[in-house]
């Protein structure tokens, strides 16, 4: 394979993907676009005040906690999977000798995921509760797939944490190195502030009230410490496999109901607070995936992180000088005339060479381009690390779905975690749980050969756009810090 083919493979374009540029649809006139944008804003404002509000939810938790099973069963209970599909999933999974994964079958879509019985990429589904339209992002629990999970979490408003109630299993997920803690810290750092904890597999502990309460009490202090407000943290006992306490307090005779009289999982989902959406901000659409569309054109998916995107308009792709026309916008198979901040959508583009579209690029209006930077300052919180961070530490920087090589080039100051005041200027090292201001510089991916120019990435200070200003820092496969961008320097 030559470089161009490799690049194309990286774009998830399959063999028959046309290299030729799909002819551009005649873009709408600026006046027509302005009119559409105004209509979209009015409709979105009305929608916010209307009955069904939309939000997105990332499902997190330690590997095998039952996340995919829970979501598969929930989709069935809410009528999103019909009987025919359920039977097909059951047959398919038992044929592979994995019948305990039949509910996860619906979400774990690829052959490899099904064979290994684990989720590797983010699966997208929509749940309808009486008052909410919820886009579900089922994140992989396995340690190796954390980058995919970051991509999911950076698109979410709320989180559903699934923990396994079985003795020893909850503890394994919660101790150092387990994914329960890391996932919670990650989603909080990425701006998710409300979480529902589903204590799953209660059938395995004889529906024990004491075990349920023990798990809640162990989690509460950690949730508080990680920055989740107790009023926005809810717990619910469930058994995903048997469908207990998901959409209804059923089955009636279940021993759980001898002591539990609280809400079901759906009651809690239905009461999630929808986020406030900044539809008046400049349009930002960071691309999280690129794929071949079903019709002509190339599709990109992602979350609108400010403003509104409307069908027919011409947008710039940053970085680069290319533009593309929005041919269509769709969400869960429905075609939309526009989408506002906070929506997760697929956008079909025409008039563009697919090579100029890559994961992490941002679509924006030519009048309000997103800035590019290769050096910036950030306020970070250091996780539970063992090797301290010093000036010059090489890291991987995660911003939306992009990860790039970077270095913590300067330690500016350590900060008080509670009020942000400076504790010490120019510290020599940062150790676990510290808060600090640092300078981050992107670096070249390769160490040998002639030094090529570092390519800047589209990024904005948190004070300008919250979604565009959040970062995560990893080192050697472990997340070591998370933070917000303060100022772009170069
Ligand atoms: N007994 C019991 N087993 C369950 C329950 N829910 C899930 N399981 C089993 O737990 C195993 C893991 O379930 P998954 O849904 O694949 O777990 P996951 O958290 O999605 O796993 P990853 O996607 O790999 O992180 C499967 O064998 C399920 O059948 C439950 O309520 N009770």
Verbal overview:
It is found in: Cytoplasm. This protein is an alpha+beta fold. It has 3 domains: 53-270, Rossmann fold; 277-364, Elongation Factor Tu (Ef-tu), domain 3, CATH 2.40.30.10; 372-488, Beta Barrel (Elongation Factor Tu (Ef-tu), domain 3), CATH 2.40.30. The chain is built from 10 helices and 26 strands. The strands form 6 sheets. The chain has a 6-stranded mixed beta sheet with strand order 2-3-1-4-5-6, sandwiched between helices. Strands 7-8-14-11-10-15 form a 6-stranded antiparallel β-barrel. A hairpin with a 2-residue loop joins strand 25 and strand 26. The radius of gyration is 23 Å and the shape is globular. The structure holds guanosine-5'-triphosphate (GTP). Residues 61, 63-69, 100-101, 104, 117-119, 140-142, 200-201, 203-204, 239-241 line the site of guanosine-5'-triphosphate (GTP).
Helix/strand layout:
Blueprint: H1 3-10, H2 30-49, E1 53-60, H3 67-77, H4 83-95, H5 111-116, E2 123-129, E3 132-138, H6 146-153, E4 158-164, H7 169-174, H8 179-189, E5 194-200, H9 209-225, E6 233-237, H10 265-270, E7 285-292, E8 298-303, E9 308-310, E10 314-318, E11 323-331, E12 334-336, E13 338-340, E14 344-350, E15 362-364, E16 372-373, E17 375-382, E18 389-390, E19 393-399, E20 402-415, E21 422-425, E22 429-430, E23 435-442, E24 457-458, E25 470-475, E26 478-488
Parallel strand pairs: 1-3, 1-4, 4-5, 5-6
Antiparallel strand pairs: 2-3, 7-8, 7-15, 8-14, 9-13, 10-11, 10-15, 11-12, 11-14, 16-24, 17-23, 17-26, 18-22, 19-20, 19-25, 20-21, 20-23, 25-26
């Amino acid at each position: 394979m030559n470089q161009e083919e490799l690049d194309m493979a990286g774009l998830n374009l399959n063999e028959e993907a046309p290299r030729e540029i799909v002819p551009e649809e005649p873009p709408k006139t600026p006046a027509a676009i302005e009119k559409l944008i105004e209509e979209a804003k009015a409709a979105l404002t009305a929608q916010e005040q209307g009955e069904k509000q939309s939000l997105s939810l990332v499902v997190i938790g330690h590997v095998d906690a039952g996340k995919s099973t829970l979501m598969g069963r929930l989709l069935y209970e809410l009528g999103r999977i019909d009987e025919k599909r359920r039977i097909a999933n059951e047959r398919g999974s038992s044929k592979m000798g994995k019948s305990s994964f039949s509910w996860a079958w619906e979400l774990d879509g690829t052959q490899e995921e099904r064979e290994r019985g684990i989720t590797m990429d983010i699966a997208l589904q929509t749940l309808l509760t009486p008052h909410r339209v919820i886009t579900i992002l089922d994140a992989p629990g396995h340690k190796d797939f954390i980058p995919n999970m970051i991509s999911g979490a950076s698109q979410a408003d709320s989180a559903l944490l699934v923990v396994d109630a079985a003795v020893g299993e909850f503890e394994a997920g919660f101790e150092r190195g387990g994914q329960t803690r890391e996932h919670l810290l990650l989603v909080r750092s990425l701006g998710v502030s409300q979480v529902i904890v589903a204590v799953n597999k209660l059938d395995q502990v004889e529906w024990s009230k004491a075990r349920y309460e023990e798990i809640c009490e162990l989690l509460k202090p950690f949730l508080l410490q990680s920055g989740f407000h107790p009023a926005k943290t809810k717990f619910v006992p469930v058994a995903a496999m048997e469908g207990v306490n998901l959409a209804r307090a059923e089955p009636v005779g279940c021993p759980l109901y001898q002591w539990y009289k609280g809400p079901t999982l759906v009651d809690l989902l239905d009461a999630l607070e929808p986020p406030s959406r900044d539809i008046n901000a400049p349009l930002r659409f960071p691309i999280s995936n690129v794929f071949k569309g079903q019709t002509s054109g190339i599709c990109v998916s992602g979350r609108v992180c400010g403003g509104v995107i409307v069908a027919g308009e011409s947008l710039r792709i940053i970085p680069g000088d290319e533009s593309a026309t929005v041919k269509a916008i769709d969400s869960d198979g429905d075609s939309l005339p526009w989408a506002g901040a906070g929506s997760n959508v697929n956008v079909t583009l025409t008039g563009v060479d697919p090579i100029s579209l890559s994961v992490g690029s941002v679509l924006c209006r030519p009048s309000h381009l997103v800035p590019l930077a290769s050096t910036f300052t950030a306020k970070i919180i250091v996780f539970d690390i063992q090797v301290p961070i010093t000036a010059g530490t090489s890291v991987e920087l995660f911003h939306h779905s992009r990860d790039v090589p970077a270095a913590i080039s300067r330690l500016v100051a350590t900060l008080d975690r509670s009020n942000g005041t400076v504790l010490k200027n120019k510290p020599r090292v940062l150790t676990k749980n510290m808060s600090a201001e640092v300078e981050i510089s992107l670096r070249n991916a390769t160490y040998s050969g002639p030094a090529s120019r570092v390519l800047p990435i589209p990024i904005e200070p948190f004070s300008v756009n919250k979604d565009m200003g959040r970062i995560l820092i990893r080192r050697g496969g472990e997340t070591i810090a998370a933070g917000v961008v303060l100022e772009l320097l170069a």
